[in-house]
């Protein structure tokens, strides 16, 4: 068990190094927070413009002028992508994706376009099969 755990932890570190991006690991049926944050910490609503896109450039979530805008959201993310409105002003535009499936795995891009700061943050989502064993291993890694 301990060897298996270390292998998974080391593997996660290696994935991070290879892509030089953030890697998040979740389990089928579970949820993950896909992180995205700005260096600006005192943002006014009109200056909060963030686009979240998936590996097929599908619309996961938009924040336009500080408001959630889901009209263009593709159906598979409906009610599965949650943002944290209390955190926007602090520059935290992370998205929680719930009820994960294997189809969700892959690249997510967060495009931030403020007047003072524009950047692209890429997050890689790995979705593992939820089994008793993997749940145990992921807990014992912490
Ligand atoms: C997520 O999964 C739960 C439990 O299976 C279910 O009750 C809920 O409707 C699902 N929500 C969405 C948005 O798929
Ligand atoms: C952003 O907010 C989420 C939800 O509250 C939290 O889990 C995450 O740690 C926050 N990230 C930063 C960089 O503060």
UniProtKB/TrEMBL annotation:
This is Ig-like domain-containing protein. It holds the Pfam family ig. SMART domains: IG. GO terms for cellular component: external side of plasma membrane. The lineage of its organism: Eukaryota, Metazoa, Chordata, Craniata, Vertebrata. It is a single-pass type I membrane protein. Residues 29-121 form the Ig-like domain. It comes from the Eukaryota. InterPro entries: Ig-like_dom (IPR007110), Ig-like_dom_sf (IPR036179), Ig-like_fold (IPR013783), Ig_sub (IPR003599), Immunoglobulin_dom (IPR013151), T-cell_Activation_Regulation (IPR051713). One of its GO terms (biological process) is positive regulation of T cell proliferation. It comes from Cirrhinus molitorella (mud carp). PROSITE patterns: IG_LIKE. The keyword Metal-binding does not apply. Keywords: Cell membrane, Disulfide bond, Glycoprotein, Immunoglobulin domain, Membrane, Receptor, Signal, Transmembrane, Transmembrane helix.
């Amino acid at each position: 068990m301990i060897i298996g755990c270390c292998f998974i932890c080391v593997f996660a570190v290696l994935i991070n190094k290879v892509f030089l991006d953030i890697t998040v690991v979740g389990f089928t049926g579970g949820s993950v927070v896909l992180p995205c944050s700005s260096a600006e910490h005192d943002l006014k609503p009109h200056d909060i413009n963030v686009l979240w896109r998936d590996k097929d450039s599908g619309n996961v979530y938009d924040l336009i002028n500080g408001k959630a805008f889901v009209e263009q959201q593709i159906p598979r993310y409906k009610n599965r992508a949650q943002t944290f409105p209390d955190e926007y002003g602090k520059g935290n535009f992370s998205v929680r994706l719930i009820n994960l499936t294997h189809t969700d795995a892959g690249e997510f891009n967060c495009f931030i376009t403020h007047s003072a700061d524009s950047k692209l943050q890429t997050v890689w989502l790995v979705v593992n099969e939820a089994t008793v064993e993997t749940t145990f291993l992921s807990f014992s890694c912490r």
